[in-house]
Every structure is written in C-alpha cells, then in structure tokens.
Design a protein that fits this description.
It is built from eight helices and three strands. With 177 residues, the chain is mostly helical. It has two domains: 66 residues, no CATH class; 103 residues, Orthogonal Bundle (Arc Repressor Mutant, subunit A), CATH 1.10.10.10. The protein has a three-stranded antiparallel sheet with strand order 1-2-3. Strand 1 and strand 2 form a beta hairpin. Helix 3 packs across helix 4 and helix 5 packs across helix 6. The termini are far apart.
Length: 177
C-alpha cells in the first residue's frame, strides 16, 4: 500500500512538472503531495498577512509559491466532471481553459491560434492537441452522469459536445463569475 502511494505521488509530481514545463510559473516540487495539498488549503483559508498577490496569479509567501484561483479552480471542475488525468487531453484542456481565461478572444480561433499555442508549449503538433482533447471529451462523456452535468453547468446536455462547446462551457463558468 505504501509503495502504491509513493508511486502515485511520483506520478502526480511528474504530471505537475510536465504541465508547467515552458510556462512562466515558479513551482517547487514537493514529494509530500498530501502535505502540500493540506498546506495549500490552509493557506487559502487563512488570509495570511505576509502574502501578496502578484500580477501573474501566484501568491508569494515567506517559504513557497503556490498557485491560486485559476489553476486550482480549473483542476477542481475538471475532476468533478471526471476527465481522466491519465489522458494527454486532460493537460491540453486545462491549458486551453487557462489560456482562454487570460485571452478570451482565443475561443474564436481554436485551430488557428489556441491549438498551435498549446502544441508549442508541449512540443507536439496542433492536430495531436485537437485529437487528444476530443478523445478526453469522448471518454468523459461516455461515463458522466446527467446529474453531474446539470449540477456543474446548470442545464442538461443530451449530446456529446464538440471541443469548442466543451471548452466554452467550462471557460464560461469562470468568466461569468
């Protein structure tokens, strides 16, 4: 059991490292993932006097950098929806949503602007990004419960959404808040 936890922690830390490769976000890799999650929750709950919010959406504390708001909220929603973390499309979707939150005009040009941008970050081709996102949506849609959709989005969706529709639905949750 302990070996499985260590293995999962290593996999999670590797995914975190891969996600942030090439982005201008400072992250310390902490091999005590459970302790790090607890610390993030506590730091977000307590309004620390020594924390200041910087323009690139991270909080600087005395001992660590933590990512707040966008990344955590997007991750939480994606996990609620049930998008499998093991799929490449998961990290591409997460990056797409965060990019669109920063630049909403990207939603109008997925193929010409957003997919190439994500492909550059992850050193792949735009077509692979598009296919991986489509696969993640398909896998998720096969197993998602209608109540979950209604609970998260506030309305029923009968058919599997396109990449554009799915990204728009999740992004709208944040942009309309």
């Amino acid at each position: 059991m302990n070996t499985n936890n260590e293995s999962l922690k290593k996999m999670a830390n590797e995914e975190i490292r891969k996600f942030f490769t090439g982005e201008n976000i400072q992250v310390r890799v902490d091999y005590n993932l459970e302790g790090r999650i607890e610390r993030i929750i506590l730091e977000n709950q307590e309004d620390k006097k020594n924390a200041k919010i910087e323009s690139n959406d991270k909080v600087e504390t005395d001992d660590d950098y933590i990512i707040v708001n966008k990344e955590l909220e997007v991750t939480n929603i994606m996990n609620k929806i049930g998008i499998p973390v093991r799929l490449k499309g998961y990290k591409y979707l997460r990056t797409a949503i965060i990019e669109i939150m920063d630049k909403p005009e990207l939603i109008e040009s997925l193929s010409k602007a957003l997919y190439p941008r994500i492909a550059e970050i992850y050193d792949t081709r735009p077509q692979r990004v598009q296919r991986a996102i489509r696969t993640a949506i398909s896998v998720t849609w096969k197993k998602i419960q209608p109540e979950v959709i209604k609970d998260i989005f506030g309305y029923d969706i009968s058919e599997k959404p396109t990449n554009w529709q799915f990204i728009s639905m999740i992004t709208d949750l944040f942009l309309l808040q």
